Amino acid sequence: MTRPRPLDVLFRGLIWAAGIVGMALPVWIVGFLLVRGAGRLTWSFLVDHPRGYPPGTEGGILPAILGSAALILVGLVIAIPLGVGGGLYLAEFCPSKRLQSYARAAVEALAGVPSILYGLFGFACFVVFLRMGISLLAGGLVLGLVMLPILLITSQEAFAAVAAQYREATLSLGTDRSAWIFWVLLPKARVRILAGLVLAVGHAVGSAAPVLFTASVYFRRGGLHLDQPVMTLPTHLYFLVSEAISFDHAFATALVLVLGLAIFNGAAMALRHQMRDS
Amino acid sequence: MTPTANTSWIQVESLDVAYGNAPVLHQVSASFPERQVTAILGPSGCGKSTLLRVINRTLELTPEARVTGGQVHVKGRNILHPSEDIRSLRKQVGIVQQRPLAFPMSIQENVDFGRRHHHGRLQRKERDRITASLLERVGLWDEVKHRLDSSATRLSIGQLQRLCIARTLANDPDVILMDEPCSALDPESTATIETLIQELKATVTILIVTHNIAQARRISDQILFLLDGTVAEAGTNAEVMGAARNPRVRRFLSGEEG
Ligand SMILES: Nc1ncnc2c1ncn2[C@@H]1O[C@H](COP(=O)(O)OP(=O)(O)O)[C@@H](O)[C@H]1O
Ligand SMILES: [Mg+2]
Q: pLDDT of A70-116, one tens digit each?
């Protein structure tokens, strides 16, 4: 047996520490939310409207839950076809490697743009210039733009990860490209695309900045309409805290956001499992 | 562009192929008689798979691969000509690739994939009958008859190899190129495939790459031996097995070199 070298010991210690902190931090944050928010998290909190004065001191957050879900849905209507289609184009149709790497770099840069800039762009472009006003449609479009680069990058990678031998096997039977894309490439890539979708939705649903000037209002009665503003979970949370309205409700709202994401992730994982089997 | 004398042959003339700037086939000329089995032998990396992939034009799906010279005629058609209908060529000249891959669909749909594409959907009964007979012929029926509708991705590699043969047969090709089709099969399944090859010979021209010298001896009428991308030996089974002129080929055939 040789004596372990001090540098090895140091590195091993650092790696362990990083691992423990990395694991402990999310547990700690969620635990903290649970402790602070669980008391307020009742059924009526989920299905009631904000009440009291100022609204939010009592009642629930149903409109914010519905608003966030609706914004994501509108966003996905934009982001899925453009993201998956764009990824397919880059992976399968792009004529030159150089164009592919430029496009890829541009999309990566887009993914790195702070989300407040998306909000600002959405306000200038959709709300003002295209006269959509502060609305579900405008905010959904902005969230679509937020999700687009993430989805495009992961889709491209998902398509590129399908071995070229599958392409050759499919086309060697004399089939055409559309058969390859629809019957082999897409089914083989969809598990990874779904993973990208989960990532994109998780990122978008929790961001307040993109919807702050484009879709959301602090309080609103009435149903969801594309041309009307909505309440959202992150902006509701933002107002509850920044206006010191109710810290208990803020923690409960944060918990709903986290649990909603957990449920969404769980559903995606179940779907993924099923896809693997088929 | 002169049509070859015997229009029923596959005729390869002075073929040069490179991957990027690295030549892999150099001045390869060979003819493959109709309704005979030609075994293609040679050490790994000598260009056997590349040659097969030229003949049904799947080589061009590899971006860096280029045919830099020569001609290939199949039944008198100059198949490397730009106006060639590649899809109909690939249907007519089927390939069983070295690495068997399942498409992400059921066993039944895998077998039916190419056929459905070329001829359209069939009545369920008719389709089931065709699938059963194809799987029967490749010796896979008994293993999969109870799970035709389950995913093909869970088959073993030996099962996949036979599935891929069935998938190619379903296209009803005139020529079948087989790239080490028995490499993952046990002796019993190998015997089934060898019997199948003998049956197919009545209607189909077969080129088979194999590393199994005994198999080549058993099933082939002709033998083409490649070394480093060139033809080292070509002739009938008896000629090459009995009296190869090239000393490396002789050593290879006697098992001294692999
Ligand atoms: N896609 C490729 N890119 C570059 N070189 C390749 C590629 N495919 C095969 N080669 C090279 O071409 C030569 C012939 O390959 P191949 O035809 O597969 O040989 P074999 O089937 O006889 O083993 C080998 O040296 C191999 O490394
Ligand atoms: Mg090979």
A: 999 999 999 999 999 999 999 999 878 888 899 889 998 988 899 99
Tell me the mean pLDDT in the region B29-37.
Answer: 94
Closest residue (by CA) to atom 14 of ligand 1? B47
pLDDT over threshold 90, residue B194: yes
Long-range contacts of A177-180 (CB under 8 A, 24+ apart): A179/B117
Average pLDDT, stretch A19-30?
A: 90
Is this complex's ipTM strictly greater than 0.90?
yes
Residue B91 with chain A: CB contacts under 8 Å? 173-174
Mean pLDDT of B214-231: 96
pLDDT in tens, A140-149: 999 999 999 9
Q: What is the dihedral of CA A219, A220, A226, A232, to 10 degrees?
A: 30
Residue ID of nearest Cα to ligand 1 atom 25:
B45
Whole-number Å distance, alpha carbon A243 to ligand 1 midpoint, is 68
* Residue A13 included in any domain: no
- Nearest by CB to B58, from A168, A183, A184: name it: A168
Q: Give the CATH number, domain containing residue A108.
A: 1.10.3720.10
Among A172, A175, A188, beta carbon nearest to B95: A172
Which helix (DSSP H) or strand (DSSP E) does residue A247 occupy? Answer: helix A247-277
The model's pTM: 0.86
Q: Is residue A161 in some structural domain?
A: yes
Q: A93, A159, A165, A172: which to substitute to probe chain B, counting the most B Cβ within 10 Å?
A: A172
Question: What ligand has the least distance to the C-alpha of B41?
Answer: 1
CB of residue B26 inside a 6 A radius of ligand 1: no
B229 alpha carbon to ligand 2 midpoint, in Å? 12
Kindly report whether the peptide bond that precedes residue A54 is cis, defined as omega within 30 degrees of 0: yes
In this predicted structure, what is the pLDDT of residue A277?
55
Residue A117: give the domain boundaries.
45-277
The encoded tokens of residue B20 equal 């990027």
Q: In chain A, what residues touch B116 (CB-CB under 8 Å)? A: none
Confidence band, pLDDT 50/70/90 cuts, at residue A1: low
Contact in structure between A226 and A135 (CB atoms under 8 Å) = yes
Cβ <8 Å between B91 and A174: yes
Structural domains counted in chain A? 1
Q: Provide the residue ranges of all domains of chain B, joining segments of one domain with +.
A: 8-254
Q: Residue A260: which of A29, A51, A62 has the closest Cα?
A: A62
Whether residue A31 is contained in a domain is answered as no
Dump strand ranges (E) for chain B.
Answer: 10-19, 22-32, 37-41, 65-74, 77-78, 93-96, 175-179, 205-209, 222-227, 230-236
Is the residue at A109 inside a domain? yes
Which residue has its alpha carbon closest to ligand 1 atom 20? B45
- Region B8-254: CATH code: 3.40.50.300
User: Does the C-beta of B40 come closer than 6 Å to ligand 1?
Assistant: no
Give the ligand at the shortest distance from the Cα of B46. 1
**B99 ligand 1 Cβ < 6 A:** no
